[in-house]
Design a protein that fits this description.
Elements lengths: L2 H12 L5 E5 L3 H9 L7 H13 L7 E6 L14 H7 L3 E5 L4 E3 L7 E3 L5 H10 L4 E8 L8 H20 L3 E8 L7 H22 L7 E2 L15 H15 L6 E4 L6 H14 L4 E6 L1 H11 L6 H19 L11
Parallel strand pairs: 1-2, 1-10, 2-3, 3-6, 6-7, 7-8, 9-10
Antiparallel strand pairs: 4-5
Helix pairs in contact: 6-7, 7-8, 8-9, 9-10, 9-11, 10-11
Bound molecules: 1,3-dihydroxyacetonephosphate (13P).
The site of 1,3-dihydroxyacetonephosphate (13P) has 11 residues, from helix 10.
């Protein structure tokens, strides 16, 4: 199939006005941390069981259109012996793959980080395509301080995202481009707005230079939020700052913006998405949540077979409420339903 057509069909399968993306691509150290919180060891079998639970949840495909997987999950099967990417697609959830290899310090820019994994990326993508992946994800991370991100940090991280994105598109894989401005710190919402705008301008400049087709990518941005150690802001204030920045920096050709949750509570992440959708924009405004979808699932499951149904109910609840928020129809009292 023609590469552009392949990309277009994947976008059509992933982007609509009700559904969002589930990020279940925790790397080995991250899933170990998540499991430790429920006193569960991160064995291959426990990871397989947990990720099968997520994808086997009946009805998940009503609210979720794509799932980001970690490498090992592509080869794992559910209890019925079906490969997990096929389980996802049986619910019309497009399987995708995290392809970055985590961050390291950026030389020459104290305090900034840069993401590893470009070496051999095209060869790895070909293997992932054979295993069913139709989209990919790459995350660059931007800590905020008085002096970060630096100009070099803005440039180097944007360059890497663009290099990754064009590599994906040339192979017919839709790139999720994730520049994450972190919530850590005591900066206020204005500082997050300023940094997010700088980051997005640099990212779209690099995407343009590399010839990335904006119609065939998904942006996974942070919301504009005050730092964790600053006062909180209400959803209206967050939505205004977030939409203001995107209108300035994100071309309307990008079909969908799928927010990360970044350490917000599940309820905050849903309420903020709802407020953002009240303002709206030329793009679909949806989710690509990891923690904000999965935290209640892990709490309900506790690694026990007898809790699977409760865990599925917890996942469906968050997925459904985010689907409502995505349409601007969420109300806080729905949390008690
Ligand atoms: P959170 O929603 O937990 O931030 O995770 C999303 C993600 O995939 C980060 O790369």
């Amino acid at each position: 199939m023609d590469t552009a057509l392949k990309l277009q069909l994947t976008i059509e399968d992933m982007v609509d006005d009700r559904r969002g993306i589930l990020a279940a691509d925790e790397s080995a150290p991250t899933i170990e941390k998540r499991f430790a919180a429920i006193n569960l060891k991160s064995t291959e079998e426990n990871r397989r069981t947990y990720r099968s639970l997520l994808l086997d949840t009946p009805g998940l495909g009503d609210f979720i259109s794509g799932v980001i997987l970690f490498e090992e999950t592509l080869d794992q099967k559910n209890a019925a012996g079906v490969l997990l990417p096929e389980v996802a697609w049986s619910q019309k959830i497009v399987p995708g793959i995290k392809v970055d290899k985590g961050t390291e310090a950026l030389p020459g820019a104290p305090g900034d980080l840069i993401t590893k994994g470009l070496d051999g990326l095209a060869d790895r993508l070909k293997l992932y395509i054979d295993k069913g992946a139709r989209f990919a994800k790459w995350r660059e991370v931007y800590p905020i301080s008085a002096s970060n991100p630096t100009q070099l940090g803005l440039y180097a991280n944007a360059e890497r995202l663009a290099h990754y994105a064009i590599t994906c598109q040339e192979l017919g894989v839709v790139p999720i481009v994730e520049p994450e401005v972190l919530m850590d710190g005591n900066h206020d919402i204005d500082r997050c707005e300023e940094v997010t705008e700088q980051v997005l301008h640099a990212v779209f400049q690099a995407l343009l230079q590399y010839g990335v087709m904006l119609e065939h990518m998904i942006l996974k941005p942070n919301m504009v939020l005050p730092g964790k150690d600053c006062r909180t802001a209400d959803p209206g204030e967050i939505a205004e700052a977030t939409i203001r920045v995107f209108r300035r920096a994100v071309p309307a050709a990008v079909p969908s913006l799928n927010f990360l949750s970044g350490g917000q509570s599940p309820e905050e992440a849903t309420a903020n998405l709802n407020a953002i959708n009240h303002l709206g924009g030329p793009w679909q405004l949806s989710i690509s949540y990891g923690r904000a979808l999965q935290q209640p699932v892990l709490e309900a499951w506790q690694g026990m077979r007898g809790n699977v149904e409760a865990a599925e109910i917890a996942l469906l609840k968050r997925a459904r409420l985010n689907s409502l928020a995505r349409q601007g129809h969420y109300q806080a009292d729905m949390e008690n339903d």
